[in-house]
TrEMBL record, chain A:
It comes from Streptomyces echinatus. It is found in: Cell membrane. GO terms for biological process: peptide transport. Pfam families: ABC_tran (PF00005), oligo_HPY (PF08352). Its main location: membrane. Residues 22-270 form the ABC transporter domain. Keywords: ATP-binding, Cell membrane, Membrane, Nucleotide-binding, Transport. InterPro entries: AAA+_ATPase, ABC_Ni/Peptide_Import, ABC_transporter-like_ATP-bd, ABC_transporter-like_CS, Oligopep_ABC_C, P-loop_NTPase. This is Oligopeptide/dipeptide ABC transporter ATP-binding protein. The keyword Cell membrane applies. It comes from the Bacteria.
Automatic annotation (TrEMBL), chain B:
Keywords: Cell membrane, Membrane, Transmembrane, Transmembrane helix, Transport. The chain crosses the membrane at residues 12-30, 106-133, 145-168, 188-208, 241-262, 296-318. This is Peptide/nickel transport system permease protein. InterPro entries: BPD_transp_1_N, MetI-like, MetI-like_sf. Residues 106-315 form the ABC transmembrane type-1 domain.
Automatic annotation (TrEMBL), chain C:
Keywords: ATP-binding, Nucleotide-binding, Transport. GO terms for molecular function: ATP binding; ATP hydrolysis activity. InterPro entries: AAA+_ATPase, ABC_transp_ATP-bind, ABC_transporter-like_ATP-bd, ABC_transporter-like_CS, Oligopep_ABC_C, P-loop_NTPase. Coiled coil: none annotated. One of its GO terms (biological process) is transmembrane transport. It comes from the Bacteria. Residues 23-274 form the ABC transporter domain. Belongs to the ABC transporter superfamily. This is Peptide/nickel transport system ATP-binding protein.
Length: 353, 325, 375
């Protein structure tokens, strides 16, 4: 087990493509009604110590993507194609044993609802100690100590006593702290946080988000942060990837995507959501229609049936041709770059109040 | 926890008393006269009166009921002799002490229940767990298919088929019979193996399906996924995380099955011509034998209540949320 | 028919309606008993879900109720619609006391106060068609609109933006947003005067939320229906409600017109709540930096709430007085009329960044302390 201590693993220089890179990921579920392509040709990179925010609504494929990174999809009903490379290691073809050594150790996950995500049958302390014992070979006693130390770190009062408690004896915010302690117990290089604050109250959410940021700074962890809330992502992420119906539609830095968004779907999201300082005279401009069924996804650009700007593209490219998404700052839309800028400045920005 | 058990035990005694009352008053409300039944065809009025006197039927109903219920605790004296506690009265029909009749029959019922439960728990739950673990493979399909077919069988069908093959056809085995385990352990085992196995087969099929689906449900739980995300192996997660949660529905159904079997497995006993508690219950009802019916009812109810409490205690053991609330 | 089936007479309709509120709640209390004990189970305590609430809702206005889980906002909604009976206090609807009205007494009022629920999946009967779901309130209340019920249902479907042809479909054939529209149509069927909407959009996706919020706004403006809008999302409440009350542990701690609450809050909890909302800032130069307040821990249990001011255990300004004396909900000097705050030591009416952040969370404080010390 000593091979796993990170101090020894010399800082292998992350390739130009980053520490985690996903290339052309395809995830298909077989269902009774037919195959559902939950993720369709997704590529992204994440650098060490950085936070990538993935935004999308339900069914956008954001959670599926990250379960696939950890190999936690149900192999019985799922086929995965493409490449997932973590620090030079290909994960899709990795064996189950290799994945087990990775999970909870180099890559950890924080789930949305800490009540259901923690086992009701074991104490918090035990659940935190478990991966530490497995991955570092620590004794039971040392692992218990480590668990108490982690609980203290994430701000649980009386950590020694509270480690003996079961999850249902914790409050919602405290459970999510315990979950974070569990994720960080082996000092992972990457943490995947799947809507970690969605189930929490707003004041508690603020505490947890700040805690994650501060811990990231201390541990140097890279974070993939999945959420539907643009406000949360603005607060947390360095880079943003917007997903719609299994595909990435826009990416860039936080400033780029939120202050000069280029994709009509991103515009729609921003216009749909009131802010604390938005102009009260302006009604919200929702995106018409509903997200598509992935059983029969729309052709071409998947957003075209709900898009208010497709007639500005000209021809039927939106219906026939999938718009490409570049590796850096880009958006998967057939509108011209200048056109996107003009539309945002002249039509979208004013409506944001 | 102790408070809980005490409270439930007190409740159980109240329930037993109410069940006794309900049985008693429903029984006497039915239009039939045990005395004349017991007296037979050429019944002289004098003899009828004697029988009434002997059976205590001349006393007020409430008095009769009270005598019966208090007899369970203190014992009763009959003209024919003393009936020591727990006294469930004397059968109108046979004149035997009901308690000793039940005690005669109970070892057989206990053998059937315990034997059956061991077989269907080990084989049924085991097969279900393996099927869930190897979901989608041939093992799973065979287990699911077999349990589907077997659970649609009935004891009165499967029993005669097995008897025809093993006993009458090939003569490999003898007719099922009950020999007390204290007298002849081998005979006991051999004699009861066919009824136990046939009954267990049907239950096994049900438990396989239940264990499998309950396990698959548990494997889809968030906390099981979390355990996997921590790097725990599939086997470890299966045995430590999912397994425990899947026990709850199994324990629930097991409690119901075992308690009803202890109250008498009528169909199994009839199919294999065995004399257990189930048979006794039928006899009591057919012969309008009040003390026997009361005795068997209360005896069965006792087990239902006892096992209910045990089931709840087991829940608490399995799930700290129940234990600590 | 007995006399008591008739509610206390309404005051002359029309007279002074400009002043008279549609709904007045005063001293409202709801305690849910907690059972326990040995050997005999008895009431050993109470969840003080709502504990002394005063509020008024004017005809046609939207009144927002915000707060975190356990603050009693949903219970308040259920009390107003009389799905629950209050433990104490009065609810007066158009001059009639409905706090303890029986089912029969409530019947004429039930049609005027409707409710929209959070979960569009479980609040519709899956075995009934949309037409049946929307028309059943009319059937129950024996209302026969001109042109028949079916025509009215089709009209309602149109109002909420659904295809009238979908009359015979079942709820599972609709998406979450569409189901919430069905819920709105059902609430509108009886031409209510007040709709209590309990987290009507929080189960929906962002892009769908806006559709439903716009629909509710349209309903409020065009049909003149008053709303009690209950939500945890402060931005949506601000967008939807002219007046807003902030609740904490069963009490209103601050209430006022939305500008007062969002721009000039006085209660420390309102400050903390607003500062916790994660926001997209559209341009750096715009808008001054917001203050940063991070509370410690979670909301205490409503079974044994703190004495005096209930927020004091998490408040940075708390003093002995706060534990000893419950602050009254009053208009502080400098506040606009109708802006009431329950606090002994109110904050400045501004949400701008302070010289020093308020970080009460020990873990955050420790991590950030280390950060500033280390170069």
């Amino acid at each position: 087990m000593t091979t796993l201590t990170k101090a020894e693993g010399a800082p292998a220089p992350a390739g130009p493509d980053g520490f985690l890179s996903v290339r052309d990921l395809q995830v298909t579920f077989s269902t009774e009604d037919g195959p559902v392509k939950a993720v369709d040709g997704l590529s992204f990179d994440l650098h060490r110590g950085k936070t990538l925010g993935i935004v999308g609504e339900s069914g956008s494929g954001k959670s599926v993507t990250n379960l696939t990174v950890l190999g936690l999809h149900d192999p019985l009903f799922t086929t995965v194609d493409g490449e997932i490379v973590l620090d030079g290691k290909e994960l899709i073809t990795a064996t189950e044993k290799e994945m087990e050594r990775l999970r909870g150790n180099r890559v950890a996950m924080i789930f949305q609802d800490p009540l259901t995500a923690l086992s009701p049958f074991y104490t918090i302390g035990r659940q935190i100690a478990e991966p530490y014992m497995k991955h570092t070979g620590a004794s039971k006693k040392a692992a218990r100590e480590r668990a108490v130390e982690m609980l203290a770190k994430v701000g649980i009062p009386n950590p020694r006593e509270r480690a003996q408690d079961y999850p249902h004896q914790f409050s919602g915010g405290m459970r999510q702290r315990a979950m974070i302690a569990m994720a960080l117990v082996c000092d992972p290089d990457l943490v995947i946080a799947d809507e970690p604050t969605t189930a929490l109250d707003v004041t508690v959410q603020a505490q947890i988000l700040d805690l994650l940021k501060d811990l990231q700074r201390e541990f140097g962890t890279a974070i993939v942060f999945i959420t539907h809330d643009l406000g949360v992502i603005a607060d947390m992420a360095d880079d943003i990837m917007v997903m719609y119906a299994g595909r990435a539609v826009e990416r860039g830095t936080v400033d780029q995507v939120l202050r000069s968004p280029q994709h009509p779907y991103t515009w729609g999201l921003l216009n749909s959501m009131p802010r604390l300082d938005s102009d009260l005279g302006t009604p919200l401009s929702p995106i018409p229609g509903t997200p598509p069924s992935l059983l029969t996804p729309p052709s071409g650009c998947r957003f075209h049936p709900r898009c208010a700007f497709r007639d500005r593209v000209g021809g039927d490219r939106c219906v026939t041709e999938r718009p490409p998404l570049g590796p850096d700052r880009s958006s998967a839309c057939h509108l011209g770059t200048e056109q996107k800028r003009t539309i945002f400045v002249e039509e979208i920005r004013p409506r944001l109040g | 926890m102790l408070q809980f058990i005490i409270r439930r035990t007190v409740g159980a005694f109240v329930t037993l008393f109410l069940i006794g009352a309900a049985t008693f008053f429903l029984f006497v409300a039915a239009p039939s006269d045990y005395a004349s039944l017991a007296c037979g065809k050429d019944c002289s009025p004098q003899r009828l009166a004697d029988i009434r006197e002997a059976l205590g039927l001349n006393l007020p109903l409430a008095q009769q009921f009270w005598d019966f219920m208090s007899g369970i605790v203190t014992g009763r004296d009959y003209p024919t002799g003393h009936c020591s506690a727990p006294c469930l009265g004397v059968s109108f029909y046979s004149g035997d002490m009901v308690w000793s009749t039940i005690m005669d029959r109970f070892p057989l019922t206990l053998t059937l229940t315990a034997g059956g439960a061991i077989v269907f728990l080990v084989v049924g739950v085991g097969a279900g767990m393996i099927a869930a673990y190897r979901r989608g493979t041939l093992v799973d399909k065979v287990a699911t298919g077999a349990s589907m077919v077997l659970s649609s069988f009935q004891i009165y069908f499967l029993g005669p088929v097995v008897l025809t093959i093993l006993v009458y056809g090939t003569g490999l085995m003898e007719d099922p019979k009950y020999v007390p385990v204290t007298e002849d352990p081998v005979g006991w085992f051999v004699g009861m193996s066919i009824p136990v196995c046939v009954m267990a087969t049907i239950f096994t099929a049900q438990y396989t399906r239940m264990a499998r689906s309950s396990m698959i449900e548990q494997l889809a739980e968030d906390h099981v996924r979390t355990a996997r995300a921590k790097g725990m192996s599939r086997k470890y997660v299966f045995l430590r995380y999912a397994w425990r949660g899947s026990l709850i529905p199994i324990v629930t159904v097991l409690g119901i099955d075992v308690s009803s079997m202890l109250g008498g497995a009528v169909v199994t006993e009839l199919t294999f011509s065995l004399q257990g508690i189930g048979r006794l219950a039928v006899d009591g009802a057919v012969n309008k034998d009040l003390p026997l019916t009361m005795g068997v009812m209360l005896f069965g109810a006792f087990f239902i209540l006892l096992i209910n409490i045990l089931t709840d205690v087991t829940y608490a053991w399995i799930d700290p949320r129940i234990r600590l609330s | 028919m007995k006399e008591d089936l008739v509610l206390p007479a309404t005051r002359e309709a029309g007279a002074g309606t400009a002043q008279e509120p549609l709904l007045t709640v005063s001293g409202l209390v709801k305690h849910f008993p907690v059972k326990g004990g040995f050997p005999i189970k008895r009431t050993v305590g109470a969840v003080q879900a709502v504990d002394g609430l005063d509020l008024t809702v004017q005809a046609g206005e939207s009144f927002g109720l915000v707060g975190e889980s356990g603050c009693g906002k949903s219970t308040t909604g259920r009390l107003i619609t009389r799905l629950l009976e209050p433990t104490a206090g009065t609810i007066t609807y158009r001059g009639r006391d409905i706090s303890h009205a029986t089912r029969k007494q409530l019947a004429p009022i039930r049609s005027e106060i409707q409710m929209i629920f959070q979960d569009p999946y479980s609040s519709l009967n899956p075995r009934q068609t949309v037409g049946k779901i929307i028309s059943s309130p009319m059937e129950i209340n024996g209302i026969d609109p001109a042109g028949g019920r079916e025509a009215r249902v089709r009209e309602l479907l149109e109002i909420v933006g659904l295809n009238p042809e979908h009359y015979n479909r079942f709820p599972h054939e609709f998406s979450g947003g569409q189901r919430q529209r069905i819920g709105v149509a059902r609430a509108l069927a009886l031409e209510p005067k007040l709709i209590v909407a309990d987290e009507p959009v929080s189960a929906l996706d962002v892009s769908i939320q806006a559709q439903v919020v716009n629909l509710l706004q349209k309903v409020q403006n065009e049909l003149g229906i008053a709303f009690v809008f209950i939500a945890h999302d402060l931005a949506i409440v601000r967008h939807f409600s002219q007046r807003v009350a902030v609740m904490y542990l069963g009490k209103i701690i601050e209430v006022g017109d939305r500008d007062s609450i969002y721009a000039r809050p006085r209660h420390p909890y309102t400050h903390a709540l607003l500062s916790a909302v994660p926001e997209v800032t559209l341009a750096e130069e715009e808008a001054p930096q917001r203050e940063r307040i991070r509370l410690a821990g979670d909301v205490p249990s409503p079974i044994s709430p703190p004495s005096g001011c209930r927020f004091r255990t998490r408040c940075w300004k708390a003093q002995d007085k706060c534990a000893a004396e419950e602050p009254p909900l009053i208009q502080l000097s400098g506040n606009r009329a109708g802006h009431l705050t329950a606090c002994h030591f109110p904050e400045e009416p501004s949400t701008e960044a302070r010289d020093e952040d308020i970080v009460l969370d020990p873990a955050l404080a420790a991590l950030e302390e280390g950060k500033t010390e280390a170069p």
